[in-house]
Amino acid sequence: MQSKATSAQQYLDELPEDRKEPINKLRQQILDNLPKGVVEQMSYGMLGYVIPHAVYPNGYHCDPKLPLPFMNLASQKNFIAVYSMVLYSKKELMDWFTSEYTKQCKYKLDMGKSCIRFKKMNDIPFELIGELTAKVTTEEWVNIYESAIKK
Predict the structure, then answer these.
(1) 8 A C-beta contact, residue 78 and residue 110
(2) Is residue 140 a part of any domain in this protein?
(3) In what side-by-side order are the strands of the sheet with 115-118?
(4) For residue 38, what pLDDT is reported?
(5) What is the mean pLDDT, run by run of 10 residues, along the chain of 151 residues?
(6) Which helix (H) or strand (E) is 42 found in, with range?
(7) Which residues form the YdhG-like domain (predicted)?
(8) DSSP secondary structure string, 68-125?
């Protein structure tokens, strides 16, 4: 579900009551662990964490007017989603995350194309999402991204 919110605060204010606490806790973990140069803004109707043009002038290859995506957080119809392309860009990062997830959570990991879905609000590994956020620097992400689009 894409939000029409134009700011993070508006997005948060419009959340259903049962989603406010988990989204706010996830958001805080992300904000506390963002690599230097990544900023929060609304992106694709979600809370977006992007590398702005001031840091990476080329922008997103799909639409260079947009900043380079790093991570997104969204309240979807049936779940909360964390979108992390970084996770899919390095096998060792994916291996680390899936291993840690199974140690910390009692429910099966539910992943889709660049997203991690949380259907059980009481089984969200908040600190693990914070760790994931901090695993790749802005410079590393730009290098990974540029290598991928050159293929």
Answers:
(1) no
(2) yes
(3) 39-43, 46-51, 68-75, 80-83, 115-118, 110-112
(4) 98
(5) 89 96 98 98 96 96 94 96 90 94 93 91 95 96 91 65
(6) strand 39-43
(7) 19-134
(8) EEEEEEEE-SSSEEEE-HHHHH-HHHHHHHHHHHHHH-SSPPEEETTEEEE--GGG--
